[in-house]
Amino acid sequence: MQVLDFRLSGAVVRVTPGSPATVSVHRIARTRSTDVSGATASLSDAAGGASLTEPGRILPGRIDFGGDLPSARVTPSTLAAARALMDVFGAGPDLDAGAIEGSEYAVVVDDASGVAPATVAATGASNSTDATASTGSTDSPGVPAPKLGGDIPDPDFFAFDVETANADEGSVIQFGLAAVRDGKVTATYSWPCKPPAGLEDFDEANIAVHGITPADVVDAPTFSERAEEFGRLVDGTPVVAHNAKFDFTALKRGCAAAGIDVPDVAYACTYEWARRVGLQVENYRLTTLAREAGAADFAHHDACDDAVACAEVALWLMREHPGDEPTLNPVKYTENLGMEMGMLFGTRLVPMRTTGRSQVGGAGAGRRHAGSRGRSGGAARDRRAKWDAVKAPDVIPAKNEDADSNGLLYGQRVTLTGDFAPYDKGRLWELIADAGADINKGVTKKTTILVAGPWDSMTSKEKKAREYKEQGQNIEIWDEKQLFTVLGLEEEPPF
């Protein structure tokens, strides 16, 4: 018997023809995990209480069912599948094969084998033309659910993203992964989870970003179970994330809160890659880079969709900025950039770092740190820098003489130090200069504001600024959030 699988966000809705036809909801979408249990009701009961709230600009939509079935989230990328499902609900209590053949946004699954025919063209979740990468599960007695990873060949790398419940990075509530092999995404994994004990509170600000509520994860596996699944799935395969510092800090903090060992991971960061290459873009946010890469529209802040977008950005960077040794291997590409992979192991999170000159062409790639001129040991500090992209740009923009004289930056002499993710330092310089300030690469006795972004330890610029301040110089020391507020920038992770 053939059934229909509608892939929504965080759920697979299965419609089984018959008299009467039935509907079941599985809480995990786009995954090959063994967790495929779901609630079942007759088609007439489900359709009798069915309603669709379409997604808005920020918040996701929702599809509700009758028959005590759980609801499912609907994002812009899965809206077509949700609408098609509502059409099927209108077919009446008895569903025949004609409804299967006419459903464009569902995967047809052979319930006797659990395998989706390769001829199925559209899933609705991403308008993909490859239905075999996310085959349906089966509820048939005696037929085992597919094992994690199934028969998909070992990937070349995984792309990874998480969503969190609150401001603590460890409050992970969704894992998203995309497996990449031979230059394309071959499988996706969307794993909701309950956050670790002590980190269960959901902030309204976070819900407004990703739309995941406590009710959405109340029946989900624990963070510990998901982290262990992540470790088994990755198992030595390189992982790429966008702003990887956030995602792997989240994994590390979540494991610490849950009292479990962190998975050993070697990782790269598309955010750092893009900065190292020196892409001339408005900013290095995932949505911006995905657009530049020509990736399909995606539901930003759905961890799985973000992971797929990250994978597409990674492949695009490796293809468009290949250097002397073209590769689609993230480890080799990182080496081509004159960097080392980051590492997560034990209790340590070791960030990516710069080891030499980039072999990949691109504006800004491989420049020396202009801010270290005239200081003993400056070249050594440059070689040890974790992120080559935090170095000062070569060209200082001229200040805007016609800026608002009442602005906090007007007439100031400003120096930046540290990291200012997700913003490019050159772009920040332009905004500061446009507000009527002079830009200084180093700290001098004329500097009036030093903005210190995050760094592992106090930078030499900040040390000098504090020394001048103690000597009576009128110099303010801001953190990056103060600068973002003054400039009207309020972006914070996740990106």
UniProtKB/TrEMBL annotation:
Gene Ontology molecular functions: DNA-directed DNA polymerase activity
UniProt-annotated stretches for the region Disordered: 122-145, 356-384
Sequence ranges of Low complexity compositional bias: 122-140
Organism: Corynebacterium freneyi
Gene3D superfamilies: BRCT domain, Ribonuclease H-like superfamily/Ribonuclease H
Name assigned to this protein: DNA polymerase-3 subunit epsilon
EC numbers, comma separated: 2.7.7.7
UniProt superkingdom: Bacteria
Keyword Cell cycle: no
UniProt keyword terms in alphabetical order: Nucleotidyltransferase, Transferase
Signal sequence range: none
Every BRCT domain range: 404-495
Pfam families referenced in this protein's UniProt entry, alphabetically: RNase_T
